[in-house]
Amino acid sequence: MSQFLTLEQVKLNLKVDHDEEDTLIESLISAAFDAFEQETNRKLYEVGAVIPEDVLNGMIVTDSILQGAHMLIGHWYKNRESVGVGTELPMATAWLWKKHRWVNT
Question: Most CB atoms closer than 10 Å: which of 4, 29, 32, 43?
């Protein structure tokens, strides 16, 4: 599971007060940060982490990344049947994440 958002933080954001879907929510958290790294070509690190010098595309997680992840997780949670994980990002998430895209030139 992602170290960037806890299950409790996400459940609070989703307004979920039961434990029956914890496994699903944990998988959505993990998938959201995988989506960020794939979409932006970045490797995320926790606040306070030291990014290794050989990781050119590394970055510390920011509030906009976390907010985009919350929005994406909420979208997937509420639209389980019509949206597959790994498809196009919701517009707000894409907008929050696009500035972090890394292009190796």
Answer: 32
